[in-house]
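Reopening this one. Same input as before:
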Amino acid sequence: MELERNTAARDSILGSIREHLAASAPHDAIHAEGSLESVAHLQVTSPLSDGSSPNGSSLSLPEIFKEKLEAVGGHCIVAGSHHDVVAALTRIISDLQKTSLRARRIALSDAPALERLVNQIEVDVDDIVISPDVAELFDYDIGISTAQAAIAETGTLMLESECERHRLVSLVPPVHIAIVGVGNICLTLGEALAAIQGSEARELSPTITFITGPSRTADIELTLAIGVHGPQELYVIINQGLQLTAN
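Same output, byte for byte:
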């Protein structure tokens, strides 16, 4: 009797997996084909200083990054100046305060420009702290950091540990806001790693965090959960006019 119940449970689980895989196959094929066609059409090798595509493609690197990030549930805002970055932060935090996420306590990485930016937001918050202790981070609603690079073809951020204390700030609070310079957006992972190393080919940090959209976790039955092992919301502000990092 016990064997029959175990067999039935196993068959049910395997049947559910087969059903979900069969349902996703057409979408996977379209996505794979679209990605290959997109990369083949762009033929981008490196970003220009303004983030545009060097071969005159209709899509610039920031536009590709924005499209890919939003496809995986992230949010992206392009800000042209210091004022625009502050306005974007104000709007994001103000909108979040109208939700269950509260957005009253903000943890910052130790990037020097972030404190100046956040102190100019036009919205009331309870607390703004730079690199709080690990135990305290769980009480914060938003973590704000910069990113040392971004990969356009996947909508991925790269955070290098030796440049900034941002690993836990980017992972623990339920909302992560990242600011990346337009000149730090590359098409591929290889180009992003080369850009971080620079012309002197310095050694990379021992820890590089790759972030592609909000945290996603699926169980054995392929039920997707958001925000279990990381932030449930990711906002990226592409900064066109403010230098935040010195790579």
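So the earlier flakiness isn't reproducible anymore. For the record, The chain has seven helices and twelve strands.
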